[in-house]
Every structure is written in structure tokens, then in C-alpha cells.
Amino acid sequence: MTDARGKARPNGEAPARHTPGTPCWVSLMVHGLETTEEFYGALFGWEFRPGPEQLGPYVRALLDGREVAGMGVLPPDRDLPIAWTPYFASDDVDRTADVVRSCGGTIGVGPLDAADAGRLAIGSDPCGAVFGVWQASAAPGTAVSGVPGTPAWNELATFESTNTAKFYETVFGYDEEPVVSADLDYVTLHLDGRPVAGVHGLGNALPRDRGPHWTTYFTVPDTDEAVTRLRHLGGHVLTPAHEGPRGRTALVTDPEGARFALLQTPG
């Protein structure tokens, strides 16, 4: 995760307003908020405080008093998956929502105000992957990065990368860097010359029970130790810990089935 100038914030400095298109927040909607807080609190050391409740009960997760992520209760009248949703910064969420629609995506929630913190929308790309758009006011978004328990990367699993990447490029102004390989369909999305997200085309290997979806990677000091702790807390392992392009990674779920990845970066 990067701030408006694309620099990491390992010491927890408060962020400036994010450059439009920057991944700036992640949020999870679940059925059981209290048990979910207990799970992630024990896994990442998060503490929680109440947040805006436009979509129902909602809390912000904190590390050393700095905001890291959000969690809410899944509204019964909203057709949203139990999943971590990345939010991308915008200077005008209403205008971004219009661009999403004009490019074949949909807006399922909003745009609406989140108290005095900012303005948001939740939409999906033409293949159905859900993402959020955040226009900051009082709260620019994730306030610390580069330390255990913080979001480190967001990656989209979809059918194919080329057309999907074009959608996000049009909406958020990214540049793309495709992987030149006959065996890997992957595009890295760049903003101001820095990688901010990935698009992985899986074709028929995309899980049928999940469809196109974003996965958030959270930094941990030791992936294998974090996997062991996750199992004890009631989570499940989808892909065992292995060496990947960004470090030692494991794909996991929380007890309600929300997918995310654990990432131990080299060094």
C-alpha cells in the first residue's frame, strides 16, 4: 500500500490524500461481527473502534491506534459476498461511478456519505469482481503499511487479464505491465510508475464457486507460524505456504469463508 507520493509508511505516519487509483482501504462484511473481531484480533493483533454505520454496524481495525481496515455486518437486503473488498481512491466518487457504469461495470451500493469520513461506492467490474471507491474527507484510508497486520497487495483473479485490466485502466488511470509468458496470464497495474495491484487470468481454473474476485494480501512476520495460528483460530488453508513472486505466501479463509492471503516479504 502506498501514500499519495507512492512511499511506504513503515513508521505509521498519518497519510496524505491518496492519488486517485491508489488502493487505500480494505473492508470486510460478515454475519458475525463479534466473532470476526476476535479472529482477526488474535491473528493480526488488531483492536477495534466503532465507525460509520451507513451500511449497518461497522468497526475500524487499528494497529497501535492507526486505522488498518474496516469490518461490518452484511446487510440482509444487500447481495454482497463475504469477502475482503479493496477500495481505490477517487477525487470524485460520483464521477468514478459514472465511468464504472459507462465501461460495463455496475454500482451496487452508493455513492453515499460515510458520516464525515468521506464518500464511497461499491461496484463490480464487467466480470463481477467487487471493489470499492473511496473519496476521502476526514479519513484518507489505511494509515499504516509495511508492518505485520497491514494490507500489502491486492490481486484480482479473473477469467483473462487483458480486457479486465483495460477496464481498471480506464476507470482509475493505471498503466499496465503484462507478464510475457505462454504459461501465465498476468498484468501488473501501475500508478505513477509504481505497482499497485495485479490481475491474474485463470481461465477455466477460476474457482466456479467464487467467480472473479479480489484477494487482499496481509503482511505477517512468518507465514508458516501465521498459518498455524490461523488453523487454531478456526480458519482454513486453501493453498499451503509457498514461495511466490512477492514472498512466502499462503491463501487462506477466515471462519466465515472470506478469502485472503498471508505474505511474508523477503528481507
Automatic annotation (TrEMBL):
Cite the Pfam families for this sequence: Glyoxalase_6
Give the source's domain of life in one word: Bacteria
Q: Which residue intervals make up region (Disordered)?
A: 1-20
Q: Which InterPro entries match?
A: Anthracycline_SecMetBiosynth, Glyas_Bleomycin-R_OHBP_Dase, Glyoxalase_6, VOC_core
Domain VOC: where? 22-136, 150-265
Coiled-coil stretches = none
Which PANTHER family does its entry note?
A: CONSERVED PROTEIN (PTHR33993:SF10), GLYOXALASE-RELATED (PTHR33993)
Query: What protein does this entry describe?
Result: VOC family protein
Organism this protein belongs to: Streptomyces edwardsiae
